[in-house]
Every structure is written in C-alpha cells, then in structure tokens.
Amino acid sequence: MPDEKKQIESLAEKNGLNVTVLPRIGVSEVESKEPQTILAYQMMGRESNGNTCPFLDTESSKRSPHGGYACKIYENRPLACRAYPVIQSVPISLDPKCKFCENCGTPSGNVDSELESLIQIQKKMDTKARYIWRYATGIGESKDKDLIKTGWFLV
Questions:
Q1: How many Cβ atoms are within 10 Å of 43's Cβ, its own excluded?
Q2: Residue 45, exposed/middle/buried by CB under 10 A (0-12, 13-18, 19+)?
Q3: Whole domain around residue 65: which residue ranges?
Q4: Torsion 126-129-131-135 (CA) sign
Q5: pTM summary value
Q6: Count of helices and strands (H, E) across the chain
Q7: pLDDT tens-digit readout, 106-115
Q8: Do the beta carbons of residue 132 and residue 27 sit within 8 Å?
Q9: 108-129: average pLDDT
Q10: Residue 20 — pLDDT band, cuts 50, 70, 90?
Q11: How many domains does the chain have?
Q12: CA distances to 24, 28, 53, 81, 97 from 102, in Å
C-alpha cells in the first residue's frame, strides 16, 4: 500500500537489501495517459522472474514455526503479507500454492487476522475513480519474455 512503501524501503536499507517496489494499481478521475493516484505497489522478488521475497531469510538456519524460511521483517511485514494465504476471490479462499496450507491442511477458523488484513486492503483500494490502471512490471518467466509488456494499461 502507498503508506507502506517508504517503510519497506527503509527496512530493506536496514537489512542491507536492494528492493524493487513498482506501482501496481492506479486510478484517475479524468482520461489521461497514466493514473493520477497510486492505490497499490508491488515489491518484486529477488529472482529474475520476480519470485522469492528479498526479506525471506534463505541464508541462516532460522525457520518459521511451520519449518519454512523465516521472514526478516515479520513483525513489520506489509498488509499483503499479513493477509496471506487468504486471497481475494469469490468466495474468499486460501492460495492453492501456499506450502503451509499444502502441508498442514486447511486451518480451522485460525485466519481471523489474515481476514482483517484483507479487509484493510479492500478499504484502502475502494475507489469511485472512473479510470483504473494496472502497471505491467515487465517481469515474468524467461520463456514469456516476448509476450511481457511494461507500463501502465487502462483496465
């Protein structure tokens, strides 16, 4: 979210990491070549395809409670991370790629804080703007390089 961008960049600096934070969703009230306001940003992963969060501690032996790599900024992680593995869909569901869910099964009512984070994201993304834009990061699988575009696209 826009109010989290500077915090993420500051945390990266404190941890000696390079991060790339790109705009993701923008809006405008009038027709233009790009949005007037950014509603959401996306932090890119450290791999060339945009995967693997730069804050994931793959170097040390620290592990999360479910055995995966620990997050270097867990207590200060952004809303998107706090909402995970709950994803916006109809109906709301859990990310089928989530390794924790895959190994441990579906949580039994233990997703209240994740749902609250998703509600906060929804409130921040609520807009009456006439034009909604999506930013294409230009990052993806190398086999799709010729298909991948970069820049703002009107939705």
A1: 21
A2: middle
A3: 2-154
A4: negative
A5: 0.82
A6: 4, 8
A7: 655 568 888 9
A8: yes
A9: 87
A10: very high
A11: 1
A12: 28, 40, 19, 18, 7
Say whether 93 sits in a helix, a strand or coil: strand
- Close Cβ partners of 54 (under 8 Å, ≥ 6 residues apart): 12, 17, 18, 19, 43, 45, 46
- Tokens 């909402």, located at residue: 83
CB 9 within 8 A of CB 104: no
Two tokens, residue 104: 């441990």
Token pair listed for 9: 């960049």
User: Going by C-beta distance under 8 Å and a sequence separation of 6 or more, which residues neighbour residue 90?
Assistant: none
Among candidate residues 136, 134, 119, the one with its CA nearest the CA of residue 83: 119
Please, what's the b/e burial string for 50-82 (b: 16 or more CB within 10 A of its CB; e: otherwise)? beebbbbbeeeeeeeeeeebebbbeeebbbbbb
Q: Over 70: is that where the pLDDT of 105 sits?
A: no
Which tens digit of pLDDT belongs to each residue from 38-76? Answer: 999 999 999 888 888 999 999 899 888 777 889 999 999
Number of residues that make up the chain: 155
Is the pLDDT assigned to residue 78 strictly greater than 90? yes
Cα 150-82-139 angle, rounded to 5 deg: 15
